[in-house]
Amino acid sequence: MTSYRFLTVLAGFAFLLTFSSCKKELAGINTNPNAVEHPQPSYLLTGATKTAADVYWNVGGTNPSNLFVQYWAAIQYTDQDRYIFSNSDFQDLWTDLYSGSIVNLDKIIDLAGAEDNPNYKGVALILRAWMYCLLTDAYGNIPYSESIQIDENITPGYDTQQKVYEGLLSDLKTAQDSLDADGKPVEGDIIYGGDIARWKKLDNSLRLRIALRIADREPEKAAAVIKSMADAGGNYIGSNSESAELKYQNTPPNDNPLAELFLTRDDYRISKTIVDRLFQLNDPRLPVYAAPTQDPTPQTYVGIPNGLLVGQASELGFTKTSRPGAAFLDETAPAVIMSYAEVLFDRAEAAARGFTAENAADLYKAAVTASLQQHNIDQGAIDKYLSQPALQYDPGNFKKSIGVQKWIALFGQGLEAFAEWRRLDYPQLKPAVAGVLNGKMPLRFIYPGTEQSLNKEGYRQAVADQGADVLTTSLWFDVN
Questions:
Q1: Where in the chain are the domains?
Q2: What pLDDT, on the 0 to 100 scale, is given for residue 150?
Q3: In terms of pTM, does the model score above 0.90?
Q4: What's the rounded Cα separation, in Å, for the pair 201 and 123?
Q5: CATH says 50-252+332-466 is which class?
Q6: Apex CA 311: angle with CA 305 and CA 316, to 5°?
Q7: Signal peptide span per the entry (predicted)?
Q8: 155, 163, 415, 453: least surrounded by Cβ within 10 Å?
Q9: How many CA atoms lie within 13 A of 191 on its CB side?
Q10: How does pLDDT run across 442-453, given as a tens digit for each residue?
């Protein structure tokens, strides 16, 4: 009996040795020989920024927000413009930001500590906060606190949108404290070229954006965030030259994704909604935002209604309707992450809410001016535009004055415009002509199908906390 037990133990020990050896061999086999063993933060920073900018600046299934806010409209394959989606249609934004960008920014933060370069940490935290803000603005509750330690949390829990915004404000404060213009340089920065002073301004500007996200729910906290930045002597983006944007190159794959899209496809036109508004206001940005029709038409610039049936859309004619303007389809057209005009609109709103002592009307006028100058409109045309009665700031309805002009100024930045339209409730957009939401507008993105299959517990909790996983569920920041 003793001999039998010894042989059994010996056999078991031999099995463990064999299994351990196999594990080592499998680990070696599953190791990518082409992977960088010691990644460089500069390369990670460039890649993370480019991946996020591409999906942010795209249109259609990967990012239908330009359709939702009626900047663009579909002239063929109109399902998405009618709000018909599967849960795989929203996959790219989720995957590209989480797996393509955030994971690399997390690595940069780790490397920054190992290399004693806090400037890398600060820049990575700012970019990561921007990306998480895009995600929560679009979907609502998202994996945030546990997704940062993905090795320990393969199926991370979802944080409420309120908690995500609170976390991002904290992250941006940490980033501000980490950045030192006299510190070690940052390489691989394709936004500001390593200019730490400008990163500090972007940090404050993003904190201002998020403070206003929570302003209808938590006005005291929003005011405190803005006051804390003023008390610290922090500056915001202060000119068009300081706007945060990725300047694309004229060679694939580093060209503007919209330019690349229109090389082989012709699915989209500018929306009739914004064309009509620009005509109504005699807005000099119309020939910037829209291209002349290929065939001569009485109006020269012709938008199409959102959400037509395929036959209705195609009957309008590809050559008799306007594509988006050349300035947006050029190979080198920049992806705007945050503009000077947006910051001025945000400062105007903060003043209108009583959060600062600045003059809301003056800042509103400066914001409109900055947007026009961003598109190289001459001063004479700017003065004429601003003199119109329809352009005068209304202190009794700051949301309307700021909301309409901010919507115009954010053209192309669909995700940001989608968030601001829901928050400010202006302009008052009409649902798609042949929409399928019973006369309602989309108020969020639905979660990608992979979350239901790979992270069931987190997904189910998010739905239980937030509401049905449908396009018409209001998010926490969207106060009706």
A1: 50-252+332-466
A2: 63
A3: yes
A4: 12
A5: mainly alpha
A6: 50
A7: 1-23
A8: 453
A9: 31
A10: 999 999 999 999
